[in-house]
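Exercise 7. Predict the structure of YciI family protein from Actinoplanes sandaracinus.
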Amino acid sequence: MISTYLKPLTEVDAARADHLAFIADLEKGGYAVTAGRIDPPTGGIILLDVDTEAEAQELIAADPYVRQGLATYTATGWHPTRGALAGYQRTRD
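Solution. The predicted structure, encoded as tokens:
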């Protein structure tokens, strides 16, 4: 999921702690593989381990950034075949 901020960075940062807690919950559930802010900070990327775009959209709808109208997300499918994530194994059933 690739996000684009819709509000000034000061408004986004005011909700950042809640957003990071949301990401931590996704990690604990085995859904978030990695995440981080784009540089320059105009949005971010969350690499989700899901089976469908619908599942990704359902998960991301709970993001405080989305709920507060601070960001939108675009889904982009990807299957790593090389590098550090090649052979990645799902951590949940």
